[in-house]
């Protein structure tokens, strides 16, 4: 369990997240993921990173129960920092990052895939931000990289999800495959990138980040400021408590 790395030739590093039961990451999990991605990118032998997950879905965001159990706001501050560092690590990784997504991709998962370079998804993959229902805000920055502006707003306000096929139609998901073909498809695409001249690919990643129209790090940090404001007023505490008490978490995964 946790985050592990495996290496495939030529220069493909696979970072796998495995936090049962639904890959809702605790504070330590976000920092661990950030460190794994940064470490992979810092290795001069790495040519591409594949980000994937085990279990029922790719990522269910933050561990709401961990935050709800904290009598103060220490865990909230820490998990916000952890998410920021993990998203930043993916975006600033000096080599391309391919996200291989299956099942649900929610909350913080959107931050990860929205900051990755290529998304390959299985037929069962769904993408969404249930933040409003949890008394939080954030990752609209990253959802806006996956769907058009008005679709993003509708999804953000309602918490509705989009399918892998819908995102493929928008052009943000490169390929949709059967679940059992996902890993092979991601590794195959990674091998195509890894076969290019490594120095050129690293320069290409830097140049693409340099021409991005939105500073994703600053934009996401701005969103987080509203989450802290909602917590200071007590609104978020009540939303999280209701979320944990009413068992919405289990229901969400069953419908994803």
TrEMBL record:
Record-linked InterPro entries: ClpP/crotonase-like_dom_sf (IPR029045), Ech1-like (IPR045002), Enoyl-CoA_hydra/iso (IPR001753)
Signal peptide region: none
TM segment ranges: none
Domain of life: Bacteria
Family assignment from sequence similarity: Belongs to the enoyl-CoA hydratase/isomerase family.
UniProt name for this protein: Enoyl-CoA hydratase family protein
Organism: Saccharopolyspora rosea
């Amino acid at each position: 369990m946790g985050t592990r790395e495996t290496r495939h030739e030529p220069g493909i590093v696979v970072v796998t997240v495995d936090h049962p039961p639904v890959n809702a990451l605790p504070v330590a999990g976000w920092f661990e993921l950030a460190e794994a991605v940064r470490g992979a990118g810092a290795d001069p032998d790495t040519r591409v990173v594949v980000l994937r997950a085990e279990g029922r879905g790719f990522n269910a965001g933050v561990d709401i129960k961990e935050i709800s159990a904290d009598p103060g706001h220490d865990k909230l501050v820490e998990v916000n920092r952890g998410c920021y560092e993990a998203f930043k690590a993916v975006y600033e990784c000096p080599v391309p990052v391919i996200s291989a997504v299956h099942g649900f991709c929610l909350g913080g998962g959107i931050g990860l895939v929205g900051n990755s370079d290529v998304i390959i998804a299985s037929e069962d993959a769904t993408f969404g931000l249930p933040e409003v229902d949890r008394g939080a805000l954030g990752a609209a920055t990253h959802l806006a990289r996956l769907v058009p502006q008005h679709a993003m707003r509708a999804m953000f306000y309602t918490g509705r999800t989009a399918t892998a096929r819908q995102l493929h139609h928008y052009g943000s998901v490169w390929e949709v495959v059967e679940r059992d073909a996902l890993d092979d498809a991601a590794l195959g695409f990674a091998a195509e990138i890894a076969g290019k001249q490594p120095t050129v690919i690293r320069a290409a990643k830097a140049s693409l980040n340099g021409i991005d129209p939105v500073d994703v790090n600053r934009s996401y940090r701005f969103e987080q400021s509203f989450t802290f404001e909602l917590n200071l007023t007590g609104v978020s505490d009540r939303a999280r408590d209701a979320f944990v008490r009413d068992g919405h978490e289990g229901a969400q995964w069953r419908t994803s």
